[in-house]
Amino acid sequence: MERISIPLQLRVVQSQPGLVEQNGKWSTGLCECWGDMDDCCCAFWCLPLFVFKTNRAAGGCPCLPLLDCVGCGTAASLAMRAAVRERYGIEGDVCSDCFYGCCCYPLSWCQISREIKRQAAVRANAISLSSSKTHYTPLVDLDHVHLI
Fold this sequence. Notes:
Elements (H helix, E strand, L loop, with lengths): L36 H9 L1 H11 L6 H6 L5 H14 L5 H10 L1 H28 L16
């Protein structure tokens, strides 16, 4: 019986798909609500629901938005804005998060929502591109081989 030699090809993942160069800036400005009118309208007509929805999409504690409702300042806004900045490498500090949370509360939540959506879309696009480039080679070439 003849032994078949098969070349082994290994693919090494050197970086995770979907990581985005952010350049330390938000993908949209604070007042760029026209880019996502659904979120803008939802935030305008029912801000508590929008805050809860955005907090949930970001993976935050479900009870965190309740702190804003009971008058504990803007704890949820501050925490979520800081978490999103940290996760995506966006420049800023606690003072700017507090300022935007206090003075531009609905706009800040809309910006957080747009950033989460953009990062998710970029990650999904990168994953689909990397999976479409994958070419599998068969383990054994069975041409002209009799199994029995």
